[in-house]
Design a protein that fits this description.
The complex is a heterodimer of chains A (244) and B (276). Chain A is mainly alpha-helical. Chain A is built from 9 helices and 2 strands. Chain A starts with a helix and ends with a helix. Chain B is of the alpha/beta class. In chain B, helix 3 crosses helix 4, helix 3 packs parallel to helix 5 and helix 4 packs across helix 5. The radius of gyration of chain B is 20 Å and the shape is globular. Classes of the chains: A mainly alpha (244), B alpha/beta (276).
Chain lengths: 244, 276
């Protein structure tokens, strides 16, 4: 989780304009969803993976670890689509099952790589600033940012408490592990609340009145970048229509 | 001139802990006031009252001699003039980069982007952290976070800066660097109020000390006067700073005449030794 945040803040394309990045990610996503050809979807997945790993230089390890959870869901969906179980509990491959599953897998994979690209190259605050620019009410955008922030506070707190318990042998046996864990969970909420409250005091001291506005350096949109993205997307569409 | 004043503040936390009991204190323009007290003496609670985060159960806080209000307009005006730096810098930083985080305060003051950018630049320069501007806030060292937290308030150019335990957890060099920054701020007419239990720090840096114990002000006055009173220090569970003791002894044995200033640094003691 915090790994994802770190990468979003340190990758090579961090400073690229949000407009360009979302044009690429969301455009490709739309193509993958709309185009009937599975080859097209695979091409999208390939291109977006290349953009993430080679363009933005996101470490392969982080990319893979983030991908693995949605991949698990995808696998379950694909298997249940490919197989069928009859009344006698005989498992067989469904008619057109493989083809159907393959199409779904290609599209879903393409979708996941698009969103991963956006998540791994763009800091959360930039996304929120972008949401605000396109007219999403500030309340909703900021709620998202705060939830994101407090998730980190919560995991930080849990990790610290866990380390402190382990240092006093709270996790040495299974029984102790269970009872320590229940103590941790019971104490996590008040702790996290008091840290959240402290952050609120800190923000209030700086004049916070319910709006989290910061100066995001909106790098000018490079027209060359936009051109390249549009051309690539048109090529992908052409390829998708050709192979359909 | 009394810029900020606390009058007979009482604050009781849920559970009956008396954090402040009829506490009074004043801050004069341009001074450096150290709020000196042991752990749990109510220092942080007082700071939270001085910027309107907490409301006293009785008593009042005065800005320019007038009672402050607690509606949102009054609080905004109040916090524009009185900045508070929390002890834990992590409680203040939330944006993804240093420069973005520092811009938060100026934008809250209703400044345009251009003005805010100027303020950010000023604060980065004042804290000597221009090189950190584009770094993610959660990837900074403890000392760097502290500076960024101070810069975040400095960008709002408050008249008074309240600092809760500014040197706590900082190593020697970090403390020295911070004091240089505070010295510069003070020279540029920012009134400084900081809490500490470090008598040496208070002696070295403050020109006025308020001594705290159990939610009360035991005494407030010029640093040397307060810190040279052993009974007073003892009742606040503190001990006199070594340098001050040296200076007073030097006076006793005639090394220093009563009109000479007391030594406030190792260099000053050395000069005294050389003289003899």
């Amino acid at each position: 989780m915090s790994q994802l945040d770190t990468v979003a803040n340190t990758n090579r394309w961090r400073g690229k304009s949000l407009t360009e990045k979302s044009l690429l990610a969301l455009g490709m996503l739309a193509i993958a969803v709309c185009i009937p050809s599975w080859q097209g979807a695979l091409l999208v997945a390939l291109l977006m993976t290349a953009a993430t790993l080679l363009g933005a230089r996101v470490p392969l390890r982080v990319w893979w670890q983030t991908l693995i959870a949605p991949l698990g869901f995808l696998l379950v969906g694909v298997i249940s689509l490919a197989l069928q179980v009859d009344g006698h509990l005989h498992v067989a491959i469904a008619p057109h099952g493989i083809e159907l599953a393959g199409r779904l897998a290609a599209r879903a994979l393409a979708g996941v790589t698009c969103l991963l690209f956006l998540a791994l190259t763009t800091p959360a605050t930039h996304l929120v600033a972008g949401l605000r620019r396109i007219g999403i009410p500030a309340e909703i955008a900021e709620l998202a940012l705060l939830i994101y922030r407090f998730l980190f506070l919560l995991t930080d707190t849990a990790e610290t408490m866990h380390a402190a318990q382990a240092a006093r042998l709270g996790h040495s046996t299974y029984r102790r592990h269970l009872s320590s864990l229940s103590l941790l969970i019971a104490n996590l909420m008040p702790r996290a609340l008091s840290r959240a409250r402290a952050l609120e005091v800190g923000l209030a001291a700086r004049g916070w009145r319910g709006e989290l506005r910061v100066l995001s350096p909106e790098r000018g949109i490079s027209s060359a970048g936009v051109m390249i993205i549009v051309v690539v997307e048109l090529l992908v569409i052409a390829f998708g229509l050709h192979t359909a | 001139m009394r810029l900020l004043e606390a009058r007979e503040l009482t604050h009781t936390y849920p559970g009956g802990v008396h954090a402040l009991e009829r506490l009074s204190l004043y801050v004069e323009r341009g001074r450096r006031l150290a709020i000196l007290g042991a752990n749990g003496s109510g220092k942080t609670t007082l700071l939270l009252h001085l910027n309107g985060t907490l409301r006293p159960h009785s008593g009042e806080v005065l800005l320019d001699g007038k009672p402050t209000g607690y509606d949102s307009t009054a609080l905004t005006a109040w916090r524009r003039r009185v900045g508070l730096v929390l002890q834990n810098a992590d409680d203040q930083l939330f944006a993804s980069t240093v420069a973005e985080d520092i811009s938060f305060g100026p934008l809250n003051l209703g400044m345009s982007d251009a003005e805010a950018r100027q303020r950010v630049d000023y604060a980065l320069g004042a804290l000597h952290i221009r090189d950190l501007a584009d770094r993610p806030t959660h990837m900074l060292s403890f000392g760097q976070k502290k500076r960024v937290a101070i810069a975040g308030l400095l960008a709002m150019q408050p008249e008074i800066l309240l600092l809760d335990e500014p040197t706590a957890g900082l190593d020697h060099q970090g403390t020295e660097d911070l004091l240089v920054v505070l010295e510069e701020l003070s020279r540029h007419h920012t009134t400084l109020v900081f809490t500490t239990h470090d008598v040496e720090l208070a002696y070295r840096f403050a020109d006025e000390v308020a001594l705290f114990n159990r939610g009360r002000t035991l005494a407030q006055g010029p640093t040397a006067d307060i810190l040279s009173n052993p009974e007073l220090l003892h009742s606040a569970a503190l001990a006199a700073p070594l340098l001050l003791e040296l200076g007073l002894r030097a006076r006793d044995v005639g090394l220093l005449s009563p009109s000479d200033p007391l030594p406030r640094s190792a260099e000053a003691v050395l000069a005294l030794l050389k003289k003899t």
